[in-house]
Amino acid sequence: MSVFPKHFLWGAATAAYQVEGAHDADGKGPSIWDRFSHIPGMTYQNTNGDVAVDHYHRFREDVALMAEMGLQSYRFSISWPRLLPNGRGNVNEAGVKFYSDLIDALLAHNIVPMITLYHWDLPQALQDEGGWEARSTADAFEEYARLCYARFGSRVKLWATFNETIVFIGHGYITGSHPPSVKDPARAIQACHHVFIAHALAVKAFREMAIDGDIGFVNVLQPHTPLTDKKEDRAAAALADAIHTHWLYDPVLLGTYPAELLAQTQALWGVPRFAPGDDALLRQNRCDFIGLNYYRRETVVANEEATRQQSNNSGEPGSGGEFGFKGLFKFVRNPDGVYTDWDWEIWPQGLTDGIMMIKERYGDIPVYITENGLGAKDPIINGDIIDDPRIEYLRMHINALEKAIDLGADVRGYYPWSFIDLLSWLNGYKKQYGFVYVDHSQDLVRKRKKSFFWYQNVIASHGEER
């Protein structure tokens, strides 16, 4: 008997900017990534999502491939500026029609849509007004969410407000490697607060409009392991958990910030600044579920030195730098670890441990694994894409997921990243994640990889055959 629950969903995921293309088609407004990716040197080989894999024009072909693979659910994001070119106000009906047609195509194939409202592509018009540092952006997000509920809520039962706040705020406002390219922790914390407020406003609207479904939030799941048993390394790992996990999960699952960290940030920088009613808004509008994006763990040491915060965007092993904060902690390479070409450790046990860590802190909150996958350079052998390392990666992580379910976790779905090879933000098209290969030299022709047929069998057997 399969340990996976009867109604467990086997899915896959993508995001709008990474697959759709059609960056200025049919009335779509510009996003911050449309602007940022055209600044020379900001992305690997100056790649951008102007065309991406042209899912906007080829979604019916892509949905047919999903159906062939047997996908039971598809997680995708909506491009806010495709619906509201200025972030608020006038609605672009052509954009509404695209997503409406996509939803109908999925449902026609019995594929459950899971919508993410925000996967990093803020309308540039709102960034010009201050972006997430401006409280008005949270109000605009509520308007956008209400539009989506009104147009799609009768057909979509699974919703997530935001994807990976730690990434778009951390890289956008601390490392400066994502838009809006700021390097200021205080501004980061205030922007992050407005994201939580936007989430709470969207949850409140969801319930006021009596949408028949569940709404959640998607966070990175990143367990931290001390490099040694030294007291200072254990303390550093605990601090990394507090900053990278508790700060991001507590507001949406408990409705409060971690008290000690909140006191420290307010004493140090005077942020986050709360508007009247923020406390109650967070407390009263918590998630129905949490989405977990798990790729790796981080090995942590105490850090008394400045650290070079440079990511590996080229896929050349060892080309990145250690990431950390002076006086707090830094992430280092595990000497016993197995790593991808992009220097991400492969550690399936972290998925089991991370899920149980969430269960211990937050109780029996329903969980969806909203991303999990291997970024690699897939070999083509006699015309076939032989991505055996991806199959092994996913197999090991499904095994780890099975352990968590066996231990009592309420896990309701698994969405590998990604359904199709796509633009990998700063990494271009060299970093492949998909079950479906896209030939950029041949009119974006889609080709099924070996993993396509493997996952097809996993789904058909409800996880028994893997």
What does this 3D model show about the protein?
This protein has helices at residues 16-19, 32-36, 55-69, 80-83, 93-108, 124-127, 135-152, 165-175, 185-208, 231-253, 259-269, 278-284, 349-362, 388-406, 450-460, and strands at residues 9-13, 73-77, 112-118, 158-163, 214-221, 224-226, 289-294, 298-301, 323-325, 329-332, 367-371, 380-381, 384-385, 411-414, 436-439, 445-448. The longest helix is centred in the middle third of the chain and has 24 residues, at 185-208. It has one domain (9-223, 344-460): Alpha-Beta Barrel (TIM Barrel), CATH 3.20.20. The protein is globular and about 55 Å long. The model has no long low-confidence stretch (mean pLDDT 95). Helix 7 runs parallel beside helix 9 (185-208), helix 8 runs antiparallel to helix 9 (185-208) and helix 9 (185-208) packs across helix 12. It is built from 15 helices and 16 strands. By secondary structure, the protein is an alpha/beta fold. Strands 1-2-3-4-5-7-11-14 form an eight-stranded parallel barrel, surrounded by six helices. The chain is 40% helix and 15% strand. It is an enzyme of class 3 (hydrolase). One of its GO terms (biological process) is cellulose catabolic process.
Q: Layout of SSEs?
A:
Elements lengths: L8 E5 L2 H4 L12 H5 L18 H15 L3 E5 L2 H4 L9 H16 L3 E7 L5 H4 L7 H18 L5 E6 L1 H11 L9 H24 L5 E8 L2 E3 L4 H23 L5 H11 L8 H7 L4 E6 L3 E4 L21 E3 L3 E4 L16 H14 L4 E5 L8 E2 L2 E2 L2 H19 L4 E4 L21 E4 L5 E4 L1 H11 L6
Parallel strand pairs: 1-2, 1-14, 2-3, 3-4, 4-5, 5-7, 6-8, 7-11, 11-14
Antiparallel strand pairs: 8-10, 9-10, 12-13, 15-16
